[in-house]
Amino acid sequence: MAEVVVAGAAGRMGSRLIALLKDDPELRLVAALEAPGHPALGRDAGESAGVGRTAVPISDDVEAAIGRDRILIEFSVPEASLAHARVVARQGGRAVIGTTGFTPPQREELARLGQQAPLLVSPNMSVGVNVAFRVLADMARLLGDDYDVEIVETHHRFKKDAPSGTAMRMAEVVAQALGRDLAKTAVYDRHDRLAERATTEIGMAALRSGDVVGEHTVSFGSLGERLELTHRAHSRDNFARGALRAARFIATAKPGLYSMQDVLGLA
């Protein structure tokens, strides 16, 4: 049975991971982490998640928690995830990282760390979203430049990064399929533009409202029709289940940088 360490154990995603791990036949929770000074430190991870005692206390000792072949599952902020990934690489561990908002230099460092340890990094752990990534590439290629591409995402009011990591990945997939440079063609806000839409634009809009878990729509519009692909997340459990599926994959993987596309055999 593979040993799992959950970072951000008292957070929304961490709590759901701990709840689902309790009944998983292949994965076992052995450590739970939170930031120094967090009010949940010292509490039982299962009791904090509302699923009963697990005998695993929430700690801030990253070095003690992450060991050889232990699988870190991380949903937090880029700086913390990168710091934990360095420990994973140094101590011969493994990691599943669902954190979004990495800068290009941070992504480059993750790729280097992946040469030392198996790391799976994905902006979205949902199986449905990762199937959507594959479908979007085909849609973009088949529709071509005659169709305008617009991406709209909606998340809860507490989300910090915008556009979401999932929306950015969708834009990257479409741009690559159409042979476009996303850095030059992405348009994030039109409030100060008094001009017609350029053919090669990939428009992006981010909405923040209430407790929306996550919604993403990619629209391909031409003069006369519009084709849309939408994914709606109804709870965080689909992300948690995807992360546990990724953990089972990374448990036997060789050093490298992987994504959910590898887990699903879509790479």
Number of domains: 2
Assign the CATH class of the largest domain.
Answer: Alpha Beta
Query: Percent of residues in beta strands?
Result: 15-25%
**Largest pleated sheet:** 7 strands, parallel
Uncertain runs with pLDDT below 50, 5 residues or more?
none
Oligomer: single chain
CATH homologous group name of the largest domain: NAD(P)-binding Rossmann-like Domain
- From the alpha carbons, calculate the radius of gyration and give it in angstroms: 19 Å
Can you tell me the CATH topology of the largest domain?
Answer: Rossmann fold
Spatial strand sequence of the major β-sheet: 3-2-1-4-5-6-12
Average pLDDT works out at 95
Overall geometry: elongated
Terminal residue distance: 27 Å
Let me know the number of strands: 12
Q: Counting H and I runs of at least 4 residues, what is the number of helices?
A: 10
Order of helices and strands: EHEHEHEHEHEHEHHEEEEHEH
The second-level CATH architecture of the largest domain is: 3-Layer(aba) Sandwich
Structural class: alpha/beta
